[in-house]
Amino acid sequence: MRVLKKNLRGDEGEIALLPESLDDLWHLQHLVERGDLVFALTHRKMPAIADKARPEKMERKTVRLGIKVEDIEFHIYSNWLRLHGVIKSGMDVGSYHTLNIEVGTELSILKHHWRLDLLQRIDDAVAESNRPRVVLALVEEGEATIGVLRQFGVQMAAELRAGSGKADGRDHRTAFFQEVAKAIDQAAGEGAQVILAGPGFAKEDLKKLIDSSYPDLAVR
User: Fold this and answer.
1) What is the CATH number of domain 2-128?
2) How far is CA 57 from each of CA 45, 49, 50, 60, 128, rounded to the nearest angstrom?
3) 55-69, 85-99, 120-134, 147-161: least confident range
4) How far is CA 134 from CA 51, 57, 137, 213, in A?
5) Confidence check: pLDDT of 140 > 80
6) Torsion angle of alpha carbons 33, 37, 40, 42, nearest 10°?
7) Who has greater pLDDT, 218 or 27?
């Protein structure tokens, strides 16, 4: 999370934020409350200009609106936060609108009372954003579960099971480990730390394959 602006008089005022991860959207779910005034860029349908042939045609325009929040929905697997309420600033004042807040969407939150726990949550979110992401991989013979450690818990990334017989000339165990290594690499992205766990020799054999096939991932 990045704090773009903080303009408070006592415990009242505006804080502008930039969410940089799914964790930040989760924090925003708890920062934004019903009755808050929230500003963000959004899309809204407007009548098309100079379209005499189709006067009913509508175009989606990017506008900045401020809404008084009535409903808040956090969708983990869609990676967005939905804020619904009445437009108080901008076009169509008095109408209802929904702001879809995604990673990278700047927003300003205006409150009559910023509680200390909310300000502390912002500080915590900023501090957490400087820490590397952690990917957990639990590996057994023929099975693997991969998750990303989030501030709200573990987000499942993949569950894999080995096939049987040959796979492109490779034995099924090697093919399975290559599939698992690829899934770990995709979940880790850049800069994440990876923790391998599990009974037996499966995790050691997977580690050897990662060392040889994914050297950038191996050093984490």
Assistant:
1) 2.30.30.870
2) 10, 9, 10, 10, 46
3) 55-69
4) 53, 48, 10, 20
5) yes
6) 90
7) 27
The listed CATH number (3.90.226.10, 2.40.420.20, 3.30.420.60, 3.10.50.30) that belongs to domain 134-218: 3.30.420.60
Residue located via tokens 């099971």: 161
What is the percent of the chain where pLDDT is above 90?
73
> Which residue in 1, 2, 15, 4 sits closest to 110, CA to CA?
15
- 116 CB-contact burial (10 Å; exposed 0-12 / middle 13-18 / buried 19+): exposed
pLDDT digits (tens, 9 = 90+) for 182-217: 999 999 987 789 999 999 899 999 999 999 988 888
Residues 6+ apart with CB under 8 A from 173: 141, 162, 205
Neighbours of 213 (CB within 10 A): 14
pTM for the whole thing? 0.80
Q: E strand or H helix at 174, and its extent? A: helix 172-188
The dihedrals phi and psi of 26, each to the nearest 5 degrees, come to: -65, -40
